[in-house]
Amino acid sequence: MHLVVCAKQIPDPETPPSAFRIDSATNKVVPAQGIAPVLSQFDGIAAEAALRIKEANAGSKVTVISLGADSAAAAIKQVLAMGADEGVLLNDPAFEDGDSYTTAKTLASAIKKLGDVDAVFCGRQAADWDMGQVGLLIAEELGWPVSIIAKSVGQDASGLTIQRVVDDGFENVAMPLPGVVTVSNEFGEPRYPKLPQIMAAAKKTVTQWKTDDLGLAASEVGAAGSRLKLEKLSTPPRGVAVEIMPGDTPAEQAAALVAKLRADHVI
Fold first, then answer.
1. Each residue's pLDDT tens digit, 38-53
2. Taking CA atoms, which of 19, 59, 158, 159 is between 20 and 30 Å from 242?
3. Which residue in 171, 183, 208 sits closest to 132, CA to CA?
């Protein structure tokens, strides 16, 4: 089997608020100094799901694909260290500032170029924008079935067996191949690569593809092909307001607080 993992590099979620900046002129997050971006946590879980399927099928391979700048190769190397076999970085200025639609279109074109893919694994959503659209749109572009928010993924003779999270519990799904799965955090923690695996991954070559390699025009991808326009990106206002409740005793102050909350329709 040939399995593909789609991996995205995002700003480190542990970045302290004091280091978080937005360039209002470009509507972009300013990279925090000294804090490296990381693999989106949901994509690491998707990689774990794909690797377990690989381990259950001798001779299978996993290819990890990321769309981004040169730095995104680090996200690919992390999945290679986990046990993936090959890495592809979609790196072209034309891909920049795209939305979910153009991202999925570009990833789907790369999957088509690989040619022999049996299943695609994505995180349930990216841990930065949290939109959860790319996996569905990849399936639409490929014309494949899709199962989302999977908490377990197995395999039988007819394809993949998936238990997915729904509002009131779990749903069991049988999906023929080829297909797309988005994997949720309920699946469990991804494996942590050991030092020899990290060193071996560092030596692997990551293939880079541009628009011409995928047979795409610059007008179809990135900002030029986007269906969504970002009007404004900003941080919420921060501040603390303190009001001292009147009263000479704790009981009087408590009564004043209750009266205030009722007046503000909080209680």
1. 999 999 999 999 999 9
2. 19
3. 183
